[in-house]
Amino acid sequence: MTRPEMVNGFTSEHLSAQPQHIRELIDRRAKVLGPGYQLFYTNPVEVSRGSGVHLYDPAGNEYLDAYNNVVSLGHCHPAVVEAVTRQLSTLTTNTRYLQTDLLDFSERLLATFPAELDRVTYTCTGSEANDLALRIARAHTGNTGVIVTRNAYHGVTAEVAAFSPSLGPASPLGPHVRTISAPDPLRHHNVTDLLRIEIRAAIEDLQRHGFGVCALVVDSIFSSDGVQPFPTDLLSVLAAEVRAAGGVYLADEVQAGFGRTGAGWWGFGRHDVVPDLVTLGKPMGNGIPVAATVLRNEIGREFGQKVRYFNTFGGSNVPIAAASAVLRTIEREGLIDNAREIGAQLLSGFAEIVEAHSFLVEARGAGLFLGIEVTAPDSTEPDRALAQSLVDDLRENLVLVSASGPHGNVVKIRPPLVFSAADAALLLARFADAAARVRR
Amino acid sequence: MTRPEMVNGFTSEHLSAQPQHIRELIDRRAKVLGPGYQLFYTNPVEVSRGSGVHLYDPAGNEYLDAYNNVVSLGHCHPAVVEAVTRQLSTLTTNTRYLQTDLLDFSERLLATFPAELDRVTYTCTGSEANDLALRIARAHTGNTGVIVTRNAYHGVTAEVAAFSPSLGPASPLGPHVRTISAPDPLRHHNVTDLLRIEIRAAIEDLQRHGFGVCALVVDSIFSSDGVQPFPTDLLSVLAAEVRAAGGVYLADEVQAGFGRTGAGWWGFGRHDVVPDLVTLGKPMGNGIPVAATVLRNEIGREFGQKVRYFNTFGGSNVPIAAASAVLRTIEREGLIDNAREIGAQLLSGFAEIVEAHSFLVEARGAGLFLGIEVTAPDSTEPDRALAQSLVDDLRENLVLVSASGPHGNVVKIRPPLVFSAADAALLLARFADAAARVRR
């Protein structure tokens, strides 16, 4: 079994069509980079500079970046540059020394969560945060079974890859992992009822196999499942089922967190449920590696009594300085409100475009996380190739988006939170043009 | 089973002896930090500034830092500050876009390795690098068995914690993990012969249980095993045994790498053996999270054909800029030579101190990685409490070191590579004073 095709991944069949300079760079990559690396787009993009919502290639072409969610404050935000430079010039040690900055930031971060979520452990990546969360959940529950959605992605450590089905059939799930459907209101009625039935079956099966139920792990925006913001009564139902079986609910906020959904700091808030553990990552440092596991104190007790956890860089000074600047900037610049407002503008604009094309069946989203579903005309049959054509057309016209979902047919739009009304208008205009061009 | 005492860890029994300000900080930590955090020293150190080989507390006390190996170039080295600031102000994207900096650095990094080691994959932490290396090794060998030394430490993901016995008895090893003795020439004659016998037994046992042999994972300086630089004919023998059984040899250079041993870039070079995979971490970015797995191309082929590996921050611009500055600075400032020369000065100075005290039985080291073994007088019986007294006495006298080894009785000395002859003389003088004071 070979590696499945990555959504919006460059493949070697398009190598000969690239300009010589690009071919040379791709060749150099092949000669030094290890296994598994892959580029975006049918025609890969070379980048050399970023600023605000724009990326630039060496020729000076300006791309509107509607995809990179790490640089949530915009590329090269001065608040982060300043904070990191100052910290790097002052101190870079770790959490085994006493330092007030770590505590000041932790207190501010936890204040953005419901009161029950009152402890934080720092890691460097979302993968590490999910890996640690699972270790903690196992110690707490005494069980090992994990439930995720059918095309979930939670990270790349061995532990986490084993419950990340979107890595494809050649990356096997663990024997202790069960999948349930992701919500897909376009194709299923009564999504919450359907998933209640599915999760009950998964729980029963995990118990029957002797794994018991350790954790339900869910990304509240279901990013790799195709961006599914609705229904919002779902997660409280799933969490209740898992808790009744002795498991915990881990909210993976690596994608949906830090204000992206426009409805508050954390994506799970839209679902009116308080998780037992929450993992954070990508936008947390606007380009500096920093991530975290937030949890209820009592959930961590068993793990803490048995095991030491020390992450050399996790919670070290520079990552904390970057995260601190990000938190402050989201507040100061009102970026959660901006995500909601510009997100609404985008959603209504995309709805009009969808209306005009038989192969666009739905625009959906929460804040600045949007998905546009591409199908065969007047049907719900996914059309991956057409979605790729849209993504590629936009790329040729200097707008960066990507695609997602189990069938790769959902155009995924996830711009920096500083996207302006004018940026949104430009994105909509380019998307409308692209849709008109690729029409079948 | 509860958490084992950490070597040189602060414990709550000493809380009431701390000044009020320190008690308050410790209390704030307990109220926000998750499970498993622990401070160094009987009297924890608060730090607020670092420069060169020094750390400073808020009162302005200057500590000679002879322990922190992340800041290999010294605290707050201007070359790293400058490179990171420039990069943060320019671009912070990931490896799915084409960029020359990533390729330039990868080519330079690989040039420091034997020619067989010709590919690199970036992660953020040494734990992630070891986790990935194991996934790659499993795909290549088709086996799962792992062999490590008795008190090895390789990281904190679930996968890697399962072969990190130094995390203590409450953190169980995986069923697929076997341990062999670390070299300990003070207590064993014919170390290489002994370990050949042990690894053959481990291999046979792994095969008998159906795991087969996937990897031997060894830190060439045996840091958590008590700093064991000798014998240097050992690793080639162990690697040969494992390869004959179908496994690979993974050199964990997170501790020994980047010139620390003074004998070249990589610790395995002292053993005249070329590994199949090598993992890098801690000092790679002088305080910016960056790590990597270096490997022989053919070892990664099977994994690469089956699995995608994407680490959002791994290989992203800022970590690569930091790592690039570190590599260049080690070359420009001749830090490998410095590690060898100052290391030799320290080793001969410590040997004299050892000679003068019946409870100090051996000083050993390679470059700027040294261990001094503390025992009951005129014996080889480890004395952990006395080693802790030495470490604490030095801390009270503004010199930072720590302890290591399965019995916690080896004083571990690991200063930044920019340590000068004067710094070394000061460290030796303070150590001699401490030894005179704690004498039993």
From TrEMBL, chains A, B:
<keyword id="KW-0032">Aminotransferase</keyword>
<dbReference type="GO" id="GO:0008483">
    <property type="term" value="F:transaminase activity"/>
</dbReference>
<keyword id="KW-0808">Transferase</keyword>
<dbReference type="InterPro" id="IPR015424">
    <property type="entry name" value="PyrdxlP-dep_Trfase"/>
</dbReference>
<protein>
    <submittedName>
        <fullName>Aspartate aminotransferase family protein</fullName>
    </submittedName>
</protein>
<dbReference type="InterPro" id="IPR015421">
    <property type="entry name" value="PyrdxlP-dep_Trfase_major"/>
</dbReference>
<dbReference type="InterPro" id="IPR015422">
    <property type="entry name" value="PyrdxlP-dep_Trfase_small"/>
</dbReference>
<keyword id="KW-0663">Pyridoxal phosphate</keyword>
<dbReference type="Pfam" id="PF00202">
    <property type="entry name" value="Aminotran_3"/>
</dbReference>
<keyword id="KW-0045">Antibiotic biosynthesis</keyword>
<dbReference type="InterPro" id="IPR049704">
    <property type="entry name" value="Aminotrans_3_PPA_site"/>
</dbReference>
<dbReference type="InterPro" id="IPR005814">
    <property type="entry name" value="Aminotrans_3"/>
</dbReference>
<comment type="similarity">
    <text>Belongs to the class-III pyridoxal-phosphate-dependent aminotransferase family.</text>
</comment>
